[in-house]
Amino acid sequence: MSVLPYRALATCLAATLLGTIPLDAARPDVAAAALKPAKPAPKYATTGRVERLAPEFDTLIAPGTEMELLAEGFDWSEGPVWIRKNQELLFSDVPVNKVYRWSEKHGLGVALNPSGYTGQALKFREQGSNGLTTDRGERLILCQHGNRQIARLNPDGSFTPLAEHYQGRRFNSPNDLCLASNGNLYFTDPPYGLDGMNNSPLKELMFNGVYLRRPSGEVVLLSRKIDFPNGIALSPDEKTLYVNQSDSKAATITAFPILPDGTVAGGRIFFDATPRVAGNKGVPDGLKVDERGNLWTSGPGGILVISPEAKLLGVLNTGEATANCAWGNDGRTLYITADSKLVRIRTLTRGAGWTR
Q: Which domain covers residue 186, as residue numbers?
């Protein structure tokens, strides 16, 4: 029979008398377990599930990694972008006309109100900002549904329009955007912000387009053949432009080769998610590309992870209709806007161009 040293025995007896540990903790093995600090509870609750559909997925998301729920209660969270200088995430809540900020240090707060419609007179289906990005100086650039433009946020809180019209006609409701290293800005213009959408009396363009805005300010129509263009992203080498179509009957991703002048050649269907629509929430919406060329796109079931060869590798199933995603922190943490929720997951890859 082993004997406890005097001090340890006295400590256990005192703790027993005070009611802090049970009597049998006077045994050496039980005493050690009782005095060991409890494992701290996770800071954030886990949510959803990670679906691994191909072995390659383990090189992108480590086995056992789960999604964390950071905040909830939004109407439709969208357009996340990481601001490095502030170490915070900005994202839109489209229907309520706000941009929120979230950081590990300060939690959740309102960054911008209003975000997408600065007027009072008109009725919009979705009036706020949608897709967000930043320029080289980390100035925020917004797709504004209500103001029907691409705009840059100024330090005084005002907006500078970057693209308002095509051939003298106002855009429908710019939705998502991405910026090339040479300053070319690509964006989509579906009708989702307009009350009545394609049938809205405010609609001035009789199509929904994919556009290029050059650094000079010139706006070029790239395609009018995608009925409901939405998310948009560049491949790591900036030779391919990916555009999502948010249509449950044709839930597709189109890949456009980029020509030397920044315009595109004829597109091809890169991936068809339509078979996944039945039984899964969501359609293709926002998307991003990682440094290896994999697409991380919202779609039926959450965030679909698709290889450059168009193979579906896995799904980050949020359990919600999922809008968009973006990398933050050191470029390896993926933030996801999923309907009323803000979610994140740690990855083994980084966003394309993260070191630029």
A: 47-346
